[in-house]
Design brief:
This protein is of the alpha+beta class. The chain is 72% helix and 9% strand. It contains ten helices and seven strands. The chain has a five-stranded mixed beta sheet, covered by helices on one side. It has a two-stranded antiparallel sheet with strand order 1-3. A hairpin with a 5-residue loop joins strand 6 and strand 7. Helix 1 packs parallel to helix 3, helix 6 packs across helix 7 and helix 6 packs across helix 8.
Length: 507
Protein backbone atom coordinates (compact mmCIF):
# COMPACT_ATOMS: atom_id res chain seq x y z
CA UNK A 1 0.00 0.00 0.00
CA UNK A 2 2.75 2.41 0.92
CA UNK A 3 4.83 1.48 -2.10
CA UNK A 4 1.89 1.89 -4.47
CA UNK A 5 1.29 5.46 -3.32
CA UNK A 6 4.95 6.32 -3.63
CA UNK A 7 5.28 4.78 -7.09
CA UNK A 8 2.18 6.59 -8.28
CA UNK A 9 3.60 9.90 -7.14
CA UNK A 10 7.01 9.13 -8.71
CA UNK A 11 5.58 8.16 -12.09
CA UNK A 12 3.23 11.12 -12.07
CA UNK A 13 6.12 13.44 -11.26
CA UNK A 14 8.26 12.00 -14.07
CA UNK A 15 5.43 12.38 -16.57
CA UNK A 16 4.81 15.94 -15.48
CA UNK A 17 8.54 16.68 -15.73
CA UNK A 18 8.71 15.32 -19.30
CA UNK A 19 5.71 17.40 -20.33
CA UNK A 20 7.16 20.49 -18.70
CA UNK A 21 10.47 19.97 -20.50
CA UNK A 22 8.67 19.64 -23.84
CA UNK A 23 6.63 22.75 -23.16
CA UNK A 24 9.75 24.64 -22.07
CA UNK A 25 11.67 23.60 -25.21
CA UNK A 26 8.83 24.54 -27.54
CA UNK A 27 8.21 27.78 -25.72
CA UNK A 28 11.92 28.62 -25.80
CA UNK A 29 12.11 28.05 -29.56
CA UNK A 30 8.95 30.04 -30.21
CA UNK A 31 10.01 32.86 -27.92
CA UNK A 32 13.42 33.05 -29.57
CA UNK A 33 11.79 33.42 -32.98
CA UNK A 34 9.29 35.91 -31.58
CA UNK A 35 12.07 37.98 -30.00
CA UNK A 36 13.93 38.05 -33.32
CA UNK A 37 10.80 39.16 -35.16
CA UNK A 38 10.11 41.81 -32.49
CA UNK A 39 13.69 43.08 -32.72
CA UNK A 40 13.46 43.38 -36.52
CA UNK A 41 10.13 45.12 -36.17
CA UNK A 42 11.68 47.60 -33.76
CA UNK A 43 14.59 48.26 -36.10
CA UNK A 44 12.19 48.70 -39.05
CA UNK A 45 10.07 51.19 -37.16
CA UNK A 46 13.18 53.06 -36.04
CA UNK A 47 14.48 53.16 -39.63
CA UNK A 48 11.09 54.37 -40.88
CA UNK A 49 11.19 57.24 -38.40
CA UNK A 50 14.81 58.06 -39.31
CA UNK A 51 13.98 58.14 -43.04
CA UNK A 52 11.08 60.50 -42.49
CA UNK A 53 13.26 62.63 -40.23
CA UNK A 54 15.93 62.82 -42.94
CA UNK A 55 13.41 64.03 -45.51
CA UNK A 56 12.06 66.69 -43.16
CA UNK A 57 15.57 67.76 -42.09
CA UNK A 58 16.90 68.14 -45.65
CA UNK A 59 13.80 70.09 -46.73
CA UNK A 60 14.28 72.42 -43.76
CA UNK A 61 17.99 72.84 -44.49
CA UNK A 62 17.34 73.74 -48.16
CA UNK A 63 14.51 76.12 -47.22
CA UNK A 64 16.68 77.96 -44.67
CA UNK A 65 19.45 78.21 -47.27
CA UNK A 66 16.98 79.64 -49.81
CA UNK A 67 15.91 82.27 -47.25
CA UNK A 68 19.51 83.45 -47.05
CA UNK A 69 20.16 82.26 -43.50
CA UNK A 70 23.94 82.18 -42.99
CA UNK A 71 25.71 78.85 -43.10
CA UNK A 72 26.82 79.21 -39.49
CA UNK A 73 23.19 79.38 -38.36
CA UNK A 74 22.45 76.22 -40.37
CA UNK A 75 25.30 74.27 -38.80
CA UNK A 76 23.11 72.68 -36.11
CA UNK A 77 20.58 71.49 -38.72
CA UNK A 78 23.39 69.96 -40.85
CA UNK A 79 24.85 68.15 -37.84
CA UNK A 80 21.41 66.79 -36.99
CA UNK A 81 20.99 65.38 -40.55
CA UNK A 82 24.44 63.80 -40.43
CA UNK A 83 23.62 62.26 -37.03
CA UNK A 84 20.40 60.81 -38.51
CA UNK A 85 22.38 59.25 -41.37
CA UNK A 86 24.81 57.67 -38.90
CA UNK A 87 21.95 56.32 -36.78
CA UNK A 88 20.23 54.98 -39.90
CA UNK A 89 23.41 53.15 -40.97
CA UNK A 90 23.97 51.75 -37.44
CA UNK A 91 20.34 50.56 -37.21
CA UNK A 92 20.59 48.68 -40.54
CA UNK A 93 23.88 47.05 -39.51
CA UNK A 94 22.38 45.97 -36.17
CA UNK A 95 19.37 44.49 -37.95
CA UNK A 96 21.65 42.63 -40.38
CA UNK A 97 23.55 41.13 -37.43
CA UNK A 98 20.31 39.39 -36.37
CA UNK A 99 20.11 37.60 -39.72
CA UNK A 100 22.36 34.56 -39.25
CA UNK A 101 21.59 32.96 -42.63
CA UNK A 102 21.66 34.16 -46.20
CA UNK A 103 18.48 34.97 -48.07
CA UNK A 104 16.17 37.75 -49.14
CA UNK A 105 16.33 39.46 -45.75
CA UNK A 106 20.14 39.72 -45.88
CA UNK A 107 20.00 41.04 -49.46
CA UNK A 108 17.42 43.63 -48.38
CA UNK A 109 19.73 44.75 -45.59
CA UNK A 110 22.67 45.12 -47.97
CA UNK A 111 20.47 47.12 -50.33
CA UNK A 112 19.41 49.39 -47.46
CA UNK A 113 23.07 50.00 -46.56
CA UNK A 114 23.71 51.05 -50.17
CA UNK A 115 20.67 53.32 -50.02
CA UNK A 116 21.98 55.01 -46.85
CA UNK A 117 25.33 55.55 -48.54
CA UNK A 118 23.60 57.09 -51.57
CA UNK A 119 21.50 59.34 -49.29
CA UNK A 120 24.70 60.54 -47.63
CA UNK A 121 26.29 61.33 -50.98
CA UNK A 122 23.19 63.20 -52.17
CA UNK A 123 23.02 65.23 -48.96
CA UNK A 124 26.64 66.29 -49.35
CA UNK A 125 25.88 67.42 -52.91
CA UNK A 126 22.73 69.25 -51.77
CA UNK A 127 24.63 70.93 -48.96
CA UNK A 128 27.43 72.04 -51.34
CA UNK A 129 24.99 73.49 -53.87
CA UNK A 130 22.86 75.15 -51.17
CA UNK A 131 25.85 76.64 -49.37
CA UNK A 132 27.41 78.25 -52.53
CA UNK A 133 24.22 80.14 -53.35
CA UNK A 134 25.30 80.54 -56.98
CA UNK A 135 22.47 80.73 -59.50
CA UNK A 136 24.14 78.23 -61.85
CA UNK A 137 24.03 75.62 -59.10
CA UNK A 138 20.27 75.86 -58.61
CA UNK A 139 19.46 73.34 -61.37
CA UNK A 140 21.91 70.86 -59.86
CA UNK A 141 20.45 71.48 -56.37
CA UNK A 142 16.92 70.86 -57.60
CA UNK A 143 17.93 67.63 -59.35
CA UNK A 144 19.83 66.31 -56.33
CA UNK A 145 16.93 67.25 -54.02
CA UNK A 146 14.45 65.43 -56.27
CA UNK A 147 16.65 62.31 -56.32
CA UNK A 148 17.06 62.51 -52.52
CA UNK A 149 13.31 62.83 -51.91
CA UNK A 150 12.52 60.04 -54.38
CA UNK A 151 15.04 57.75 -52.70
CA UNK A 152 13.69 58.61 -49.23
CA UNK A 153 10.10 57.92 -50.31
CA UNK A 154 11.11 54.58 -51.76
CA UNK A 155 12.97 53.76 -48.56
CA UNK A 156 9.94 54.76 -46.46
CA UNK A 157 7.73 52.49 -48.56
CA UNK A 158 10.21 49.62 -48.14
CA UNK A 159 10.42 50.13 -44.37
CA UNK A 160 6.64 50.18 -44.06
CA UNK A 161 6.43 46.97 -46.04
CA UNK A 162 9.11 45.47 -43.78
CA UNK A 163 7.19 46.53 -40.65
CA UNK A 164 4.05 44.92 -42.07
CA UNK A 165 5.99 41.75 -42.84
CA UNK A 166 7.58 41.49 -39.38
CA UNK A 167 4.22 42.08 -37.70
CA UNK A 168 2.74 39.27 -39.80
CA UNK A 169 5.59 36.93 -38.83
CA UNK A 170 5.13 37.85 -35.17
CA UNK A 171 1.41 37.07 -35.39
CA UNK A 172 2.26 33.71 -36.95
CA UNK A 173 4.75 32.91 -34.17
CA UNK A 174 2.21 34.00 -31.57
CA UNK A 175 -0.41 31.66 -33.06
CA UNK A 176 2.02 28.77 -32.94
CA UNK A 177 2.92 29.48 -29.32
CA UNK A 178 -0.76 29.86 -28.42
CA UNK A 179 -1.56 26.52 -30.02
CA UNK A 180 1.26 24.87 -28.08
CA UNK A 181 0.18 26.61 -24.88
CA UNK A 182 -3.34 25.23 -25.35
CA UNK A 183 -2.58 21.73 -26.56
CA UNK A 184 0.23 20.76 -24.22
CA UNK A 185 -1.52 21.82 -20.96
CA UNK A 186 -4.67 19.97 -22.10
CA UNK A 187 -2.67 16.80 -22.58
CA UNK A 188 -0.86 17.35 -19.29
CA UNK A 189 -4.12 18.03 -17.50
CA UNK A 190 -5.64 14.85 -18.91
CA UNK A 191 -2.75 12.68 -17.80
CA UNK A 192 -2.54 14.43 -14.45
CA UNK A 193 -6.27 14.15 -13.87
CA UNK A 194 -6.17 10.45 -14.61
CA UNK A 195 -3.31 9.85 -12.19
CA UNK A 196 -4.81 12.15 -9.58
CA UNK A 197 -8.16 10.40 -9.81
CA UNK A 198 -6.52 7.06 -9.15
CA UNK A 199 -4.60 8.47 -6.21
CA UNK A 200 -7.55 10.31 -4.69
CA UNK A 201 -9.67 7.21 -4.90
CA UNK A 202 -7.29 5.56 -2.44
CA UNK A 203 -6.73 8.66 -0.24
CA UNK A 204 -10.35 9.74 0.15
CA UNK A 205 -10.96 8.16 3.55
CA UNK A 206 -7.90 9.56 5.42
CA UNK A 207 -8.38 13.00 3.87
CA UNK A 208 -12.05 13.03 4.85
CA UNK A 209 -11.06 12.03 8.37
CA UNK A 210 -8.52 14.89 8.58
CA UNK A 211 -11.10 17.37 7.30
CA UNK A 212 -13.58 16.28 9.94
CA UNK A 213 -10.96 16.63 12.66
CA UNK A 214 -9.95 20.11 11.39
CA UNK A 215 -13.57 21.28 11.36
CA UNK A 216 -13.97 20.07 14.94
CA UNK A 217 -10.82 21.92 16.06
CA UNK A 218 -11.96 25.12 14.34
CA UNK A 219 -15.19 24.96 16.38
CA UNK A 220 -13.27 24.47 19.60
CA UNK A 221 -13.84 20.72 19.97
CA UNK A 222 -10.67 18.61 20.00
CA UNK A 223 -11.39 15.36 18.16
CA UNK A 224 -8.65 12.66 17.87
CA UNK A 225 -7.84 11.67 14.29
CA UNK A 226 -7.06 8.02 15.12
CA UNK A 227 -5.72 5.43 12.67
CA UNK A 228 -5.74 6.65 9.05
CA UNK A 229 -4.59 3.32 7.55
CA UNK A 230 -1.41 4.64 5.83
CA UNK A 231 2.04 4.98 7.35
CA UNK A 232 2.55 8.27 5.48
CA UNK A 233 -0.48 9.75 7.22
CA UNK A 234 0.08 8.19 10.64
CA UNK A 235 2.82 10.66 11.63
CA UNK A 236 0.56 13.44 10.41
CA UNK A 237 -2.27 12.08 12.57
CA UNK A 238 -0.06 12.01 15.68
CA UNK A 239 1.17 15.55 15.05
CA UNK A 240 -2.36 16.75 14.38
CA UNK A 241 -3.65 15.27 17.66
CA UNK A 242 -0.80 16.96 19.55
CA UNK A 243 -1.51 20.26 17.82
CA UNK A 244 -5.23 20.02 18.64
CA UNK A 245 -4.40 19.51 22.33
CA UNK A 246 -2.05 22.50 22.31
CA UNK A 247 -4.63 24.68 20.56
CA UNK A 248 -7.27 23.73 23.14
CA UNK A 249 -4.89 24.63 25.97
CA UNK A 250 -3.93 27.92 24.30
CA UNK A 251 -7.58 28.78 23.72
CA UNK A 252 -8.35 28.26 27.38
CA UNK A 253 -5.38 30.39 28.42
CA UNK A 254 -6.25 33.07 25.86
CA UNK A 255 -9.84 33.13 27.08
CA UNK A 256 -8.63 33.75 30.63
CA UNK A 257 -6.23 36.45 29.46
CA UNK A 258 -8.97 38.13 27.40
CA UNK A 259 -11.33 38.09 30.36
CA UNK A 260 -8.71 39.69 32.60
CA UNK A 261 -7.80 42.18 29.90
CA UNK A 262 -11.42 43.17 29.34
CA UNK A 263 -11.86 43.63 33.07
CA UNK A 264 -8.68 45.73 33.32
CA UNK A 265 -9.65 47.80 30.28
CA UNK A 266 -13.14 48.41 31.65
CA UNK A 267 -11.74 49.39 35.03
CA UNK A 268 -9.11 51.64 33.47
CA UNK A 269 -11.69 53.20 31.16
CA UNK A 270 -13.99 53.92 34.08
CA UNK A 271 -11.07 55.39 36.02
CA UNK A 272 -10.04 57.59 33.08
CA UNK A 273 -13.61 58.75 32.56
CA UNK A 274 -13.90 59.60 36.25
CA UNK A 275 -10.61 61.48 36.18
CA UNK A 276 -11.57 63.31 33.00
CA UNK A 277 -14.83 64.34 34.61
CA UNK A 278 -12.92 65.41 37.71
CA UNK A 279 -10.44 67.41 35.62
CA UNK A 280 -13.29 69.07 33.74
CA UNK A 281 -14.96 69.97 37.02
CA UNK A 282 -11.69 71.30 38.45
CA UNK A 283 -11.12 73.38 35.32
CA UNK A 284 -14.62 74.83 35.49
CA UNK A 285 -14.19 75.50 39.21
CA UNK A 286 -10.86 77.20 38.65
CA UNK A 287 -12.33 79.46 35.98
CA UNK A 288 -15.15 80.39 38.33
CA UNK A 289 -12.64 80.90 41.14
CA UNK A 290 -10.50 83.38 39.22
CA UNK A 291 -13.61 85.29 38.21
CA UNK A 292 -14.82 85.37 41.82
CA UNK A 293 -11.46 86.23 43.38
CA UNK A 294 -10.95 89.10 40.97
CA UNK A 295 -14.41 90.40 41.90
CA UNK A 296 -13.82 89.90 45.62
CA UNK A 297 -10.44 91.66 45.59
CA UNK A 298 -11.86 94.45 43.45
CA UNK A 299 -14.62 95.14 46.01
CA UNK A 300 -12.41 95.85 49.08
CA UNK A 301 -9.89 97.74 46.94
CA UNK A 302 -12.72 99.95 45.67
CA UNK A 303 -13.88 100.42 49.27
CA UNK A 304 -10.34 101.41 50.27
CA UNK A 305 -10.27 104.02 47.51
CA UNK A 306 -13.68 105.38 48.45
CA UNK A 307 -12.81 105.67 52.14
CA UNK A 308 -9.56 107.42 51.27
CA UNK A 309 -11.43 109.85 49.02
CA UNK A 310 -13.97 110.52 51.83
CA UNK A 311 -11.15 111.21 54.27
CA UNK A 312 -9.42 113.55 51.81
CA UNK A 313 -12.63 115.48 51.08
CA UNK A 314 -13.55 115.78 54.77
CA UNK A 315 -13.13 118.87 56.87
CA UNK A 316 -9.74 119.26 58.47
CA UNK A 317 -9.84 118.52 62.16
CA UNK A 318 -12.84 116.15 61.93
CA UNK A 319 -11.13 113.37 63.86
CA UNK A 320 -14.25 111.18 64.17
CA UNK A 321 -14.81 111.03 60.44
CA UNK A 322 -11.11 110.45 59.78
CA UNK A 323 -10.99 107.68 62.37
CA UNK A 324 -14.05 105.99 60.88
CA UNK A 325 -12.51 106.16 57.38
CA UNK A 326 -9.24 104.71 58.66
CA UNK A 327 -11.08 101.88 60.41
CA UNK A 328 -12.88 101.04 57.18
CA UNK A 329 -9.56 101.11 55.29
CA UNK A 330 -8.05 98.87 57.93
CA UNK A 331 -10.94 96.41 57.74
CA UNK A 332 -10.86 96.19 53.95
CA UNK A 333 -7.08 95.89 53.98
CA UNK A 334 -7.36 92.98 56.40
CA UNK A 335 -9.85 91.28 54.08
CA UNK A 336 -7.45 91.62 51.14
CA UNK A 337 -4.53 90.33 53.20
CA UNK A 338 -6.50 87.32 54.40
CA UNK A 339 -7.66 86.48 50.86
CA UNK A 340 -4.06 86.58 49.66
CA UNK A 341 -3.04 84.40 52.59
CA UNK A 342 -5.77 81.91 51.61
CA UNK A 343 -4.43 81.82 48.04
CA UNK A 344 -0.88 81.22 49.29
CA UNK A 345 -2.06 78.42 51.57
CA UNK A 346 -3.95 76.69 48.77
CA UNK A 347 -0.95 76.99 46.43
CA UNK A 348 1.40 75.51 49.03
CA UNK A 349 -1.03 72.69 49.80
CA UNK A 350 -1.29 71.80 46.10
CA UNK A 351 2.51 71.76 45.73
CA UNK A 352 3.00 69.68 48.90
CA UNK A 353 4.87 72.57 50.61
CA UNK A 354 2.34 73.29 53.39
CA UNK A 355 4.71 72.92 56.36
CA UNK A 356 3.38 73.49 59.91
CA UNK A 357 5.30 73.77 63.12
CA UNK A 358 4.70 71.39 66.02
CA UNK A 359 4.59 73.40 69.23
CA UNK A 360 2.16 73.81 72.10
CA UNK A 361 -0.06 76.90 72.03
CA UNK A 362 -3.23 78.17 73.67
CA UNK A 363 -6.18 77.72 71.30
CA UNK A 364 -8.20 80.25 73.35
CA UNK A 365 -5.54 82.89 72.89
CA UNK A 366 -5.33 82.16 69.15
CA UNK A 367 -9.14 82.51 68.96
CA UNK A 368 -9.07 85.85 70.78
CA UNK A 369 -6.40 87.24 68.46
CA UNK A 370 -8.34 86.03 65.43
CA UNK A 371 -11.49 87.73 66.69
CA UNK A 372 -9.53 90.95 67.17
CA UNK A 373 -8.24 90.82 63.60
CA UNK A 374 -11.74 90.12 62.23
CA UNK A 375 -13.40 92.81 64.36
CA UNK A 376 -12.87 95.72 61.88
CA UNK A 377 -14.50 93.68 59.11
CA UNK A 378 -17.37 92.77 61.45
CA UNK A 379 -17.98 96.37 62.46
CA UNK A 380 -17.77 97.48 58.82
CA UNK A 381 -20.44 94.87 57.99
CA UNK A 382 -22.64 95.86 60.93
CA UNK A 383 -22.02 92.52 62.67
CA UNK A 384 -20.72 91.63 66.12
CA UNK A 385 -18.96 88.60 67.52
CA UNK A 386 -20.23 87.11 70.79
CA UNK A 387 -17.70 84.70 72.30
CA UNK A 388 -17.90 82.25 75.17
CA UNK A 389 -14.48 80.82 76.00
CA UNK A 390 -13.87 78.53 79.01
CA UNK A 391 -11.59 79.88 81.71
CA UNK A 392 -8.07 78.57 81.76
CA UNK A 393 -5.77 77.54 78.98
CA UNK A 394 -6.80 75.24 76.13
CA UNK A 395 -3.43 73.86 75.03
CA UNK A 396 -3.09 72.05 71.71
CA UNK A 397 -0.04 71.11 69.59
CA UNK A 398 0.58 72.51 66.16
CA UNK A 399 1.18 75.80 64.36
CA UNK A 400 -0.45 78.79 66.07
CA UNK A 401 -0.06 81.04 62.99
CA UNK A 402 -1.77 78.60 60.61
CA UNK A 403 -4.51 77.91 63.17
CA UNK A 404 -5.13 81.65 63.51
CA UNK A 405 -5.41 81.98 59.71
CA UNK A 406 -7.95 79.12 59.63
CA UNK A 407 -10.00 80.73 62.43
CA UNK A 408 -9.96 84.12 60.67
CA UNK A 409 -11.18 82.44 57.46
CA UNK A 410 -14.09 80.86 59.37
CA UNK A 411 -14.93 84.16 61.14
CA UNK A 412 -14.82 86.11 57.85
CA UNK A 413 -17.17 83.56 56.30
CA UNK A 414 -19.61 83.88 59.20
CA UNK A 415 -19.46 87.70 59.10
CA UNK A 416 -20.18 87.69 55.37
CA UNK A 417 -23.48 85.84 55.99
CA UNK A 418 -24.44 87.71 59.21
CA UNK A 419 -24.69 91.35 58.21
CA UNK A 420 -26.43 93.36 60.95
CA UNK A 421 -26.56 90.23 63.16
CA UNK A 422 -24.53 88.54 65.88
CA UNK A 423 -22.07 85.66 65.43
CA UNK A 424 -21.67 83.21 68.29
CA UNK A 425 -18.32 81.58 69.04
CA UNK A 426 -17.95 78.87 71.73
CA UNK A 427 -14.76 77.13 72.91
CA UNK A 428 -14.85 74.40 75.56
CA UNK A 429 -12.81 71.39 76.77
CA UNK A 430 -14.38 67.93 77.00
CA UNK A 431 -12.86 64.44 77.37
CA UNK A 432 -9.33 65.45 76.37
CA UNK A 433 -10.48 67.43 73.34
CA UNK A 434 -11.05 71.08 72.49
CA UNK A 435 -14.46 71.74 70.92
CA UNK A 436 -14.93 74.98 68.97
CA UNK A 437 -18.17 76.08 67.26
CA UNK A 438 -18.86 79.15 65.12
CA UNK A 439 -22.52 79.87 64.34
CA UNK A 440 -23.75 82.55 61.90
CA UNK A 441 -27.22 83.91 61.12
CA UNK A 442 -27.15 83.32 57.40
CA UNK A 443 -29.53 81.28 55.19
CA UNK A 444 -27.71 77.99 55.82
CA UNK A 445 -26.83 75.37 53.20
CA UNK A 446 -28.86 72.65 51.52
CA UNK A 447 -28.37 69.32 53.31
CA UNK A 448 -27.02 67.65 50.19
CA UNK A 449 -24.31 70.31 49.82
CA UNK A 450 -22.89 70.22 53.37
CA UNK A 451 -20.26 67.61 52.45
CA UNK A 452 -18.93 69.77 49.61
CA UNK A 453 -18.53 73.00 51.59
CA UNK A 454 -14.89 72.21 52.38
CA UNK A 455 -13.93 71.37 48.80
CA UNK A 456 -11.49 73.73 47.13
CA UNK A 457 -13.17 76.53 45.09
CA UNK A 458 -16.67 75.19 45.89
CA UNK A 459 -19.35 77.84 46.44
CA UNK A 460 -23.06 77.66 46.97
CA UNK A 461 -25.31 80.19 45.16
CA UNK A 462 -25.67 82.28 48.33
CA UNK A 463 -21.90 82.47 48.68
CA UNK A 464 -21.44 83.59 45.08
CA UNK A 465 -24.12 86.24 45.54
CA UNK A 466 -22.22 87.73 48.55
CA UNK A 467 -18.83 87.47 46.87
CA UNK A 468 -16.26 84.89 47.83
CA UNK A 469 -13.48 82.70 46.55
CA UNK A 470 -14.44 79.28 47.91
CA UNK A 471 -11.06 79.06 49.65
CA UNK A 472 -11.66 79.89 53.33
CA UNK A 473 -13.34 76.65 54.39
CA UNK A 474 -10.87 74.59 52.32
CA UNK A 475 -7.91 76.28 54.08
CA UNK A 476 -9.57 75.67 57.45
CA UNK A 477 -10.01 71.97 56.72
CA UNK A 478 -6.35 71.58 55.62
CA UNK A 479 -5.12 73.26 58.81
CA UNK A 480 -7.42 71.25 61.07
CA UNK A 481 -6.40 68.00 59.34
CA UNK A 482 -2.71 68.82 59.88
CA UNK A 483 -3.48 69.32 63.61
CA UNK A 484 -5.06 65.87 63.84
CA UNK A 485 -8.56 67.24 64.33
CA UNK A 486 -11.87 67.18 62.50
CA UNK A 487 -14.17 69.86 61.07
CA UNK A 488 -17.81 69.55 60.05
CA UNK A 489 -20.70 71.80 58.97
CA UNK A 490 -24.38 71.54 59.90
CA UNK A 491 -27.50 73.70 59.65
CA UNK A 492 -28.75 75.33 62.87
CA UNK A 493 -32.38 75.13 63.86
CA UNK A 494 -33.98 78.46 63.05
CA UNK A 495 -31.45 79.32 60.32
CA UNK A 496 -27.73 79.75 60.08
CA UNK A 497 -24.70 77.51 59.61
CA UNK A 498 -22.72 75.86 62.40
CA UNK A 499 -19.02 75.00 61.94
CA UNK A 500 -17.78 72.49 64.51
CA UNK A 501 -14.05 71.84 65.11
CA UNK A 502 -12.60 69.16 67.39
CA UNK A 503 -8.87 69.16 68.26
CA UNK A 504 -6.93 66.85 70.60
CA UNK A 505 -5.58 68.62 73.69
CA UNK A 506 -1.87 68.42 74.35
CA UNK A 507 -0.97 65.85 77.06
Amino acid sequence: MVRSIRNTLIFGGLGALIVLLAVALAASTGLRRANQVLARSGYSQDQLALAMGLEAGVNTYVARAAMGIPMRARLEEREKIEALLLRYDASIRAERALLTTTGDAVDDADEELATVSELGRLFRAIRRDADTGVATERASLSADLDRFQSLVRRTVAQERAEVTETVGRFDQARRVIRAMAIALPIFTAFVGALGLGLLLARLRRPIARLQSAMAAVSKGHAEPVGDLGFAEFQALAVGFDRMADEIAAQRAALSNVNARLEHDVAARTAELEARNAQLAEIEATRRAFFAQISHELRTPITALQCEAEVALRGRSGDAAMLREALEQIMAQGGVIRRRLADLLAISQAEDGRLVMAQASFDLGQALRESMALADPFARASGSRVEARIDDGECIVRGDAGWMQQALIALLDNAIKFSADAAIRVDLARAAGKAELTIVDNGPGVAEGALERLFERFHQEPAGRARGGSGLGLSVARSVVDHHGGSIAASNRDGGGLRISITLPLAS
